[in-house]
Design a protein that fits this description.
alpha+beta, lyase, 806 residues, 23 strands, cAMP biosynthesis, five-stranded mixed β-sheet, ATP binding, Adenylate cyclase
Length: 806
């Protein structure tokens, strides 16, 4: 027997063992569903799940259904197929990859399937196969089995000349797009199971052969790919951080050995060829082992402890439960845990992760995020010596970083959603807020306000904003309709407003639309929801002696009430949801709080047009209805006026606040307010065509008289934006920084793609303060004239994928 034949036989033996292990972990129904995956792609007939017309390609290389696969047809009430060979097979093989048949497979694991099609299939035939795959995914889901099916071109990894349309799906929730290439193939090699079709030639120095599937050589993965892969794993970590952390740390371990990296796929093969088919020769276990060896060398015991917990939780085996089925992994995991010297109480806590309360989840989330960001910084430093991977689409880099910015932002006003991981419900019957004078922040505890309850307790959330505590608890389901809120060291009457406000917030968070499309992320953010909490921190109405009915009768101004002309609005908290899916909480107080709050929200309201939900909640002891009615009317008027103005007009609305009459000026760029008693300033404002202008750029000798209006319309605080226009003498570049300060220059001898690449590389790797900026990479727009009007078109977006969720 020659070496190639020996390798094929050895690979097939490992494949049989892996398939048997996968089936052993699945329930009887899910075993039959798994067996049907290749059968339903080989036979394409009306009445079968996934049938979408006669033109869809079918047939798998060298496939014939086994007895167990035919028996699965009976179980699922499918007519058994006639025994015939498909003459022209369109599919080279069907393979699972990922955690199936490994230590990482647990009862909730999904199944990722690669469908490697014939290289001669047309684009339309591939589209039909994708449609069929989507129908099959929906059919499997009816039975509680999540099957994700990916079409793979047999040459997309190995052949540089393959077109972009054929080789890469656009990036999406389940497609890594151009973010990773060879590292994705390496994961496939180390974990694949052949369900049908050609044997995968995944061993080192494999030779091509007609009966084998050879996708490429992963022995020399380019360093630049680690950056894109780490971004992708961080993105996947938004849903499953414990799983993503293991993969990010594996990348970090790989990078430290570069260029002599010993890949997990190579370790698996070496043990296989040495005759080791034990549980220790498992792709997921060896992934953990590689990280363990790396962290032990670093003497990084704290990270290693979190990694061990993530690995244990991913396995889904509960060692504290005596009735736990003892599958092929059990004894290996038991010996591992014993070697880690874990206490029984820790094992019990991990085994009951579905019952974790919000404090435990918050702590674990913080640990995972800190570790993932630490690895990301390490990988950035590693990748910074290389240029961005040429195959990495820069538009996808922008999408990934912008999505990550919505979660890992250092903005203290942002309210981060709590990843519930495994917990079904984290609702609490009692929540108490305590103000820490030492730390100048509010602390949230999950107990009633009795001193004995706080012994040994850790605050589940902290913030300098009291409203942010309320919003965080309500957004994450910690506070529900039956939760009672307290404020420590204050009477029960003082705490009642917290409970009332929390209940009124619930519908706005429950109805939150999770949909964030690619186009949303390509464009400047805009408001989708605004919730205004009035007098939440301090309440002048508690000491007010007047009569509420007289305020209504006299149509009095609550911003300048009574003989003392007192502003009864002492504080205003703005809770907002943006089109990027970000929740923020901003606090304003003092005499001018209402005017400063309006000036803050108007730019985001203008970009939202009329598609915005606004709610006003008064937390004051008195004048509740008057506050809500007045502020709602004021905000609606501000929205109306800001939408009516044009680039050449300014609208003014007078409002008395305290003892001062203010003019509120609206134009196409936002809002400012001015004391109307200052006549000189007032007339200056009225005569100006634009009240609020972006700082004038230094245009040098360029013959521009003003900034294109479209740039000002797209301006967004907190974002770096490049507007690019190809001219006869070079590339016109307008740059808005995070403070909306504008610069302009002409780049000679450069095209749009080159400039986007250079700028992206600079911001990704060469910014001195990368930890602070992290994911705030620039947005790029092309300035193009359409039907005589200058438009800003997001760079790299196609119409087909613009509305795709991301």
């Amino acid at each position: 027997m020659n070496e190639q034949s020996q390798f094929i036989e050895t690979a097939e033996r490992l494949n049989r063992i892996r398939l048997a292990r996968a089936l052993a972990i699945l329930s009887p129904l899910k075993r039959d569903l798994l067996r049907l995956i290749p059968l339903l792609f080989h036979y394409h007939r009306a009445g079968y799940p996934g049938y979408n017309g006669s033109m869809t390609p079918s047939g798998i290389f060298n496939y014939a259904p086994s007895e167990s696969e035919l028996a699965a047809c009976d179980t699922l009430d499918l007519v058994k197929p006639t025994q015939h060979q498909v003459k022209q097979t369109a599919i080279e093989g069907v393979y699972s990859m990922g955690s199936m048949a490994s230590f990482g497979q647990n009862p909730k694991s999904d199944i990722d399937v690669w469908l490697v099609h014939d290289r001669l299939l047309t684009k339309e035939e591939c589209r039909l196969l994708e449609d069929k795959s989507s129908l099959l995914t929906a059919w499997f889901a009816q039975y509680g089995l999540e099957v994700n099916i990916y079409l793979v071109h047999p040459e997309q990894f190995s052949k540089a000349s393959i077109s972009e349309d054929e080789s890469l799906h656009p990036i999406g929730q389940e497609h890594s797009g151009s973010a990773q290439h060879w590292l994705l193939l390496e994961e496939f090699y180390r974990s694949q199971i052949r369900l049908a079709g050609k044997t995968v030639a995944w061993w080192p120095n494999a030779q091509r052969a007609d009966e084998l599937l050879y996708l490429g050589d992963v022995s020399h993965i380019p360093a630049s790919e680690y950056f894109g892969a780490s971004l992708w794993q961080l993105y996947k970590g938004l849903d499953k951080p414990h799983k993503a952390l293991l993969k990010v740390l594996l990348l970090e371990a790989y990078a430290t050995e570069y260029p002599d990296t010993l890949l997990v796929s190579e370790k698996v093969w070496q043990r296989t060829i040495d005759g080791d088919f034990s549980a220790a020769n498992d792709a997921y276990y060896l992934l953990y082992e590689s990280i363990e060896v790396y962290l032990e060398k670093q003497q990084d015991w704290s990270r290693l402890e979190i990694v061990r917990r993530c690995f244990y939780l991913k396995c889904g085996i509960r060692l504290s439960e005596f009735e736990q089925a003892k599958d092929w992994r059990y004894h290996k995991l038991r010996s591992l845990v014993d070697s880690w010297n874990w206490s029984q109480s820790l094992i019990d806590t991990l085994d009951h992760c579905e019952d974790w309360h919000c404090g435990q989840l918050q702590w674990f989330n913080e640990q995972l995020n800190e570790l993932m960001l630490g690895s990301y910084q390490t990988l950035i430093q590693f990748a910074s010596i290389n240029k961005l991977n040429g195959s990495f689409r820069l538009s996808e880099l922008g999408l990934l970083t912008r999505k990550l910015h919505t979660y890992f932002s250092a903005d203290t006003q942002q309210i981060i959603s709590l990843n519930r991981l495994w917990s079904d419900s984290i609702a609490e019957p009692d929540l108490t807020i305590i103000y820490s004078h030492n730390d100048n922040e509010y602390c949230l505890y999950r107990c009633p306000p009795y001193s004995r309850n706080f012994i040994g307790q850790r605050a589940v959330y902290r913030s300098r904003s009291k409203a942010k505590l309320l919003a965080w608890a309500t957004l994450n389901g910690v506070s529900t309709q039956v939760t009672t809120w307290y404020e420590f060291a204050n009477g029960s009457g003082k705490s009642e407003y917290l409970t009332t406000a929390a209940k009124r917030l619930i519908p706005f968070f429950e109805s939150e639309e999770k949909h964030v499309s690619k186009m949303d992320l390509y464009q400047p953010w805009r408001y989708k929801k605004l919730i205004l909490l009035l007098n939440f921190n301090s309440d002048p109405t508690a000491q007010w002696q007047g009569q509420e009915i007289m305020v209504d009768y006299m149509n009095a101004n609550i911003f300048s009430l009574g003989r003392r002309q007192q502003n009864m609005l002492a504080s205003i908290d703005i809770i907002s949801l943006s089109s990027w899916g970000e929740w923020h909480c901003h606090h304003y107080e003092g005499e001018l709080g209402i005017l400063n709050a309006l000036a803050f929200i108007i730019p985001g309201i203008r970009q939202a047009a009329e598609d915005i939900s606004i709610e006003v909640i008064s937390c004051s002891a008195k004048l509740k209805s008057q506050f809500e009615r007045t502020v709602t009317g004021l905000v609606q008027r501000a929205v109306r006026l800001s939408l009516q103005v044009s680039s050449s007009s300014t609208l003014v609305y007078p409002l008395k606040v305290g003892k001062v009459q203010y003019g509120i000026f609206f134009n196409s760029k936002g809002m400012v307010f001015q004391d109307l008693k200052d006549a000189k300033a007032f007339y200056q404002q009225l005569t100006m065509k634009k009240v609020i202008e972006l700082p004038r750029p230094d245009l040098g000798n360029e013959p521009f008289t003003k900034i294109p209006d479209v740039i000002q319309d797209f301006a967004a605080h907190g974002a770096i934006q490049y507007f690019l226009r190809q001219g006869e003498h070079g590339l016109d570049v307008f740059v808005l920084n995070e403070q909306n300060e504008l610069n302009h220059y002409v780049q000679q001898g450069a095209n749009v793609d080159e400039l986007v690449s250079q700028v992206s590389h600079h911001h990704a790797f060469e910014e001195p303060d990368t930890s602070a900026q992290r994911f705030n990479l620039p947005q790029f727009f092309r300035l193009i004239r359409i039907d005589g009007r200058l438009r800003a078109i997001p760079f790299g977006v196609s119409v087909d994928e613009a509305e795709m969720d991301f």
